[in-house]
Amino acid sequence: MGCPVKKVVGTGAGSSLLKDPSLLPKLFSTIKKSISIPLTIKIRLGWDFDSINAFEVIHIAKEEGIDFVAVHGRTRSQQYTGNANWDYLNHLGEKAPLDIIGNGDLHTASLVKESLLTSKCQALMLGRGPLRNPFLFLEAYLTDEDDIYFTPMDYFEVLNKLIEYYRAYAQNDHILLISIRKHLIWMAAGFNNVSTFRDLIFKTPDLDETMRHSHEFFHDQNGQKKRLQDHSTFMTSGHG
Taking CA 114 as the corner, what is the angle to CA 69 and CA 51, rounded to the nearest 5 degrees? Predict the structure, then answer.
């Protein structure tokens, strides 16, 4: 099965629309007329470094009644390589005619705290970071005086809650298992013996058995703190 993102781009949809912004006014206006809730969009800076056109797209969005724009600080050609361009995101936050939600590389509580204080964007968006650390939203508001950390079993509790939510949408346990596997691996990152755990999970065809293995994995960490290489590139394929 091919990458869903590539399939979308290959049809001329998704981020490929950045290559021809003249298509956007009709698209935005048609959607706007069809809904009664606020319309927002998420874009990248442009298709590549030679076609940075986020400002143009945001102006079109303003004219067509878009309410705000989330901007990932990379081009489409970058995927998730390199660094998000927060200088440009802050420029958009200061000069763009719509509120800007800045997105990109906010993988640690310290980075989120710093951005909350310094960013010119009107809001921040966290993407990949919380997939490995769902407590990132809380940690961003903890102070040095707060003697709090989240245990391996806290992560397992989040996974169980996630399964509850997924059951409302998954057609069957097999589809649910496929969805949960990737979250298991993301949340297990940074703990001991994660490679062995990953191999076991992908060989386990049953959801209940998968969760039994997962309980054992997180329980056997004995309260260890998660250790992540927060600034290393991860999920470069764009899944998630």
Answer: 40
